[in-house]
Every structure is written in C-alpha cells, then in structure tokens.
Amino acid sequence: MKCFSFYNGDKKDESKITKSVLAPSTNSTFNEGEMRKSGSELNFQNVPDTSTESLRRTSFPSLSQRPSNLRVFTVSELKLVTRNFSRSVMIGEGGFGCVYKGVIKSAEDPSTKIEVAVKQLGKRGKQGHKEWVTEVNVLGVVEHPNLVKLVGYCAEDDERGIQRLLIYEYMPNRSVEHHLSTRAETPLPWAMRLRVAQDAARGLTYLHEQMDFQIIFRDFKSSNILLDEQWNAKLSDFGLARLGPSEGLTHVSTAVVGTMGYAAPEYVQTGRLTSKSDVWSYGVFLYELITGRRPLDRNRPKREQKLLEWVKPFLSDMKKFHLILDPRLEGKYPLKSAQKLAIVANRCLVRHPKNRPKMSEVLEMVNQIAEASTETGSPPLPLKSLAQVETSVDTEPKNNKRNVDLRTGESGWFVRMWTPKLLRTS
C-alpha cells in the first residue's frame, strides 16, 4: 500500500522519505518536508542535531526534562553486532535505511545476551533525520508493554558522514500486516486477532490518556504493529508522532502526513490533528482484522480497492455480513464476535471526531468482546515463533441517543454507514 504526504498551504523543499519498519513491509510512509511551525513538535536534548535549520522545534519541558534510560552505542560496536552491517542479517529495508538483526550484551547482566533490531539511517544523513530524532524523543521517555522498546541509539559524525542508528528489541514474529497477507503460511486465528486488537488499543490508550502529556501516533497501521516471541502486539515506528494539543487548545495544526486508507478525513482536509485521528485509524484496522484486506489495494477490482467502500453494502444486511469475513479463517470464528467488533469499528469511524469514543472506551469494548469469545471457546493461539520456522456520511446510528449493547449484539448500526471521500495527493 502506498502512503502519501498531504499538504495544506505552501510546500517548501518537499522531501519524500520512505521509512522502514523492523520487519519487511509493503507499506511505506512519505514524510513531510519542512513542517509548519506547530505546538506539537517534539523537542530533543540529548543527541547532536545536524539540521537545526530544517528541524526547528519548540521546547517541551514535559519531555526534555524526563530521564532517559537509553544506551548510547558507537558505530564500531554496532558493526560487531551486525557483522559489519551484512546483508545476511538484514531484516528490512526502506527509504530510511536498512534494519539488521543483532545480539548485544544486557546492560543489567553482561553475561546475558539479547536480540535486537538495528535501524540505520541512510548514508545521506538528512533523509529521515527528523523522524530519527522524534523516535528517540518518544521512546526514550515512554515505556509500556504494548510499545516496542527502544534499547538505545548511535549518533556519530565522522569523515564518513552522519551516522544515525536506532537499536530496538527484536520482534521475531514480524508485523500484523504480514500475517494478514497471503505471504504468511498460516492466517492469524480469530482469537489472536482479538488479542492483537486489545494490545493495540492498550498501546494507544497509554499514549493518549495515561501520561501527563499526550502523544498522537499519527501513523497507526498494521505494518506498524509488531509481534514478539509470545505474540504480544506492540506499536512501533514513532517517527511521525506528535505531542497532543496544549491545555486550552482543541487540536494541533500540522502538515498532513500518513498512510492512504488510514488517515482520518478531517485531518486530511484541514490538517487539524487530535487523538481522534488515531481512533479513526484504529477503526480502519479493525476492519482489516475482520476482512484480511488492506485499507487500499490497487491490485483488486476497482470496486474492491477501498476497504471501507467495499464493506459498506454488506453491512446493511445481517445475512450478508459473513461475506466480508477473511476467507483464510475458513469459518473458524464466532460470527457474533466479528459482528460486535464491527460495531466498535463503526463507532471509531464516525465522521465527526468529537463523536468518536476515546481509546480507553474502545479498549473496554474490545475487552468485552474478547472475554465473551473466550467463554464460548475459540481456536488455540499460535505460540511458535517464526524465528523457529523456515519460512462522507456519519457512521453513527440513526438515533444518536441509542447506545449499542455489545452483549446482545444489536444490529441497528448496520443501516447507516460512511461515504469515504477521495484523498487528494497534490
């Protein structure tokens, strides 16, 4: 799936940068060039910034004054870790640069070795530098079981040029996007999809509501949700993240970036960013889990290329709903569970952002669905690591005062759906 930069206003020195993730992905993100001045910019204090003119940022004490537990590596150390950045240990590649698998000694216990993923900024240096800074800023001060852990970074300038690298915990089971695609040998079972939905919602809830500052992910998508050895889902790739609006403000104004098919319509049209933009993206992701389809797939027939438009006719008739379920599941799913998850998706996809639920509310609803699914019985979760295997109308109900009961699975929500508008890339 292609990703685009959307601009509102003048463009200056547009720099389109395809970013890599820790595992191979068909998704890419085109980053903005020079951002408009915004109160959402993340300040970075601890590493060299070689492009201050193009990376003007406002200082935010709530982030910059927080202690960071990140380790500082040298290029020499990382050469040893990655066999001199050998292609034999490369696990991902994109416009940002390449990602390599390596092994380092634990800081707490040097006798213990831990696997890591080393992301290297491209040789040109400036490409992706702003995202590199933001990534260190965010993951250096936040910590949660459903966020990929940043172990450390490397920032060196020498005769070879700018050296910028990020060292993450290694995620052996790749991305959710991979497992929803036909590239995966076996599809994710329904129980695992619910678990992923829970984990992703927990991660977003933490970013939005559980700290004394708010972070808006801004690039939530299945390729940015990685799976660890125990199949726990973790959000990754925070290069486009932004601080939420300051007290007394309703939104953050930014140049519009993100992934086609996931971006909230009001953000695309106005550049006004809120946490509800992430909620919209999460709603799209739920339909991705339900259908096994990408939000935008140019390889499909024209009428099926846009996921939200394709599912719309099937939601007006309960008898047709099963037709949108991922065929790779081979019917091994509780139909009511899938219907209830679609209810949650629709609530996230309400056209007016103020009417979308908060992520904590979304998490509570998804937890209800997962608990009910467990009680009725579901297929076992896959526990074997891949590393061990070769291989616009509102979506609101007609009566806005009506509450949807997830326990009964009422279906009035099927009647009215959204009409996604085309996103312009000029």
TrEMBL record:
Subcellular location, record wording: Cell membrane
Gene Ontology CC: plasma membrane
Membrane topology: Peripheral membrane protein
Gene Ontology BP annotations: defense response; pattern recognition receptor signaling pathway; regulation of salicylic acid biosynthetic process
GO MF term list: ATP binding; protein serine/threonine kinase activity
Bias-annotated ranges (Polar residues): 40-62
Coiled coil, from the record: none
Residues given in the record as ATP binding sites: K119
Main location (coarse class): membrane
Keywords tagged on the record: ATP-binding, Cell membrane, Kinase, Membrane, Nucleotide-binding, Phosphoprotein, Plant defense, Transferase
Record has Cell membrane as a keyword: yes
Disordered: annotated segments: 28-62
Oligomer status and interactors: Interacts with FLS2.
Recorded family membership: Belongs to the protein kinase superfamily. Ser/Thr protein kinase family.
The name this protein goes by in its record: non-specific serine/threonine protein kinase
Annotated source species: Fagus sylvatica (Beechnut)
